[in-house]
Amino acid sequence: MLHVTAGIGVLSVAQTMMTEIFGTTLPKIVDSGFAATYVIMISVFNMCGRFFWASTSDYIGRRATYWIFFALASRCICRSHSLRKASA
Fold first, then answer.
1. pLDDT of 35
2. pLDDT single digits (tens) 4-59
3. What three-state secondary structure class fits 26?
4. CA 59 → CA 46, 50, 54, 68, 85, distances in Å?
5. How many other CB atoms sit within 10 Å of the CB of residue 18?
6. Do residues 39 and 19 touch, judged by C-beta distance below 8 A?
7. d(CA 38, CA 24)
């Protein structure tokens, strides 16, 4: 249940975050329309992911789905760590 609350929290402030974080850095790109499109895209991918992972869980089982989550998250974290080292 916590992940649902966190996802809703991020969606509720995504436009503000995008405008405040990137608005000063990229003022010609990030305007209110761009930020709104960003929120819409997060929402669409969130919805599609929920349908996809729920269907996958129904097909292969909850335990296997969580192992896939764990493996994908581990890979993404390790990859981002190696990219950070390479850019430093």
1. 81
2. 677 777 777 877 887 787 777 877 887 878 888 888 888 898 889 889 989 999 99
3. coil
4. 20, 14, 9, 13, 38
5. 19
6. no
7. 17
